[in-house]
Amino acid sequence: MRLGIVAIARPTFDVPFAQATAEQGVKTLRDAGFEIVGSSSLVMDTDSLAAALETLVAESIDALIILQASFADSSLTVQAADVQGPVVLWAFPEDRTGGRLRLNSFCGINLAGYALTNKGRDYHWLYRPASDNTAAIEIRNLLGPRPSAPQGDNASDMAQIPPSAMQAAATVRDRLRSITIGRVGERPDGFEPCGYEAAVLTAVLGVTVDEVPLPELFDRAGAAGSADVAEALDRAGAFLDGTGEVDQESLAQSLRLNVGLRSLIRDRGWAGVATRCWPETFTEFGGAACTPMALLNEDGTPGTCEADVYGNITGLILGWLAESAAFVADLVHLDRDTNTGVLWHCGLAPFEMADPESVPHATIHSNRKMPLLSEFPLKPGRVTIARVSQSNGQHRMVIGGGDMVRAPLAFSGTAGVVRFDRSVDAVMSTVMGEGLEHHFGIVYGDVRNELHALANLLTIATVGI
C-alpha cells in the first residue's frame, strides 16, 4: 500500500520536537511495510504545502496520511484533503509534563475534523504515539468505510427530566432571548468553529451579537487610566502569586485589556464577550488577553478566546444553570490507560476552579512569551461538559459528564484532568466522528438534565459525549 505523507505544524509550537515526531511516524509506517510517498519535512505555509501536494499528485497513492506534527489551524489540512482518495489524520500524544504544551496535536485534528465535516469531506483519524506499531495496524483497518460515531446516553425520554430541571431550562431559554453578547474582532483564519451566522443564531437561540473591531478594544485599553490599571493589578494579585516576577510593561498592557473589555461590557450592555485574543493582542498591543478574560469569567461574565461566539453562549448557559463560573477549554490530551483527558486553555479558567491545594501563579504565554496568564490545576469534583454546537450544519447540544480528579498541572496555563463517564476512545470517536468543535464548556456540578431540557425547548438535538 502506497501512502502519501504531509506533516503539518505551526512555527509557534516546538518545531524540533514536531519534526522528530513526524520523522518517527514515517519510520513506523515504513517499518510496517508501507511504501511512502512524500516527506516528513514540516509543512507550515501554503507554498510548502503546494510543493508537497505537487509531488503526491504526480504519484498514485492509496491514501493520504496527514501527520498533525503540532497544532495548526484547519486551512492547510483542508487544502491537503483536496487530494483524491482516503485521508487519515494522525494526532500524537505528548507527556503531561506540567510545562509547555509542545504539540497540542489532538486539538489540531479536532479543529480540522470540524472543517472537513462541514465541507462534506470524509476522513479517518487516529491518536497514537509516533513509535506505536498499533498506528500501522489501525491505518490498515481504517481504510474502509468510516464507522458511525458512538454516542453516550442522550436521555431523550423527557418524562425522566425532573420538573425543577425543566423550569431552570425555561428560565435560561428566556434569558437567552433577552441578551446581547459582544464579539471583538474577527475569528482567526482556519478556526471555523468560532464563526457564526447572526440571523441563524438569533432564530435558534434568541441571542443578539454586537460586533466591534479589535482596534476599538485597543483604543479603550490604551486610554485606561493608571487608577484603573492599578485596580486590575490588585484584583489579579489577589488571586495570583508572582505578578511582580513577570515583565511589568507587558503586564500593564495585559491589564489594560481587562479595563478595555470591562468598558465595552458596561457601555454596550454585553452579557459576555468573545474576543480575538491573538495574535494582535501580543504583536500590536503588547500583552496577553488570557488572565484579563479569566477575571471576567470569575465575575460571571464569560470571556472566550478566538472570537468563539457559540463557546461564549455555552459558558453563559452553564454558568446560569450551575450558578457558578464556567470555563471554555480545548480538549488537548487523552490517556487510554487512566481513562482521562485534559481540558486546557492558556490561562482562561476562573479562579474559583483552582485546586485549593495549589497556589495559582502568574506566568507568561508559552508560545508568545508575554504576560499575563494564570497557572493552576483545576480542583477535583463533578463536572458537566457541554457545547452548543453547529457542526455539520445543524444546531445540537453536546452533553457529557465526568469527574475532575486531583492531579499535578498537566500543561502550563490552566488545566484539569477529567475522568469521563465514557471511555476516552468513545469520547474521541464522538468528537471526531461528529466533527465537533474544539472548544468545550465545563462547569462544576451536574446540570445534564437541565441541558437536555433546554435542548428540547430550543428544538435542537443532543449529542452525548
What's a concise summary of this model?
By secondary structure, the chain is α/β, with parallel strands linked by helices.
Describe this structure in words.
The chain has 465 residues and is an alpha/beta fold. The protein folds into two domains: 2-142, Rossmann fold (3-Layer(aba) Sandwich); 158-464, 3-Layer(aba) Sandwich (L-fucose Isomerase, Chain A, domain 2), CATH 3.40.275. 38% of the residues lie in helices and 23% in strands. It has helices at residues 15-31, 46-57, 75-80, 105-119, 134-142, 163-176, 198-205, 214-222, 226-239, 248-268, 280-285, 290-298, 309-322, 424-433, 448-458, and strands at residues 2-8, 35-43, 63-68, 87-91, 124-127, 180-184, 208-212, 273-275, 303-304, 327-335, 340-345, 361-363, 373-377, 381-389, 396-405, 414-420, 439-444, 461-464. Strands 10-11-16-15-14-17 form a six-stranded antiparallel barrel, surrounded by four helices. Helix 6 crosses helix 15, helix 8 (214-222) packs across helix 10 and helix 9 crosses helix 10. The protein is globular.
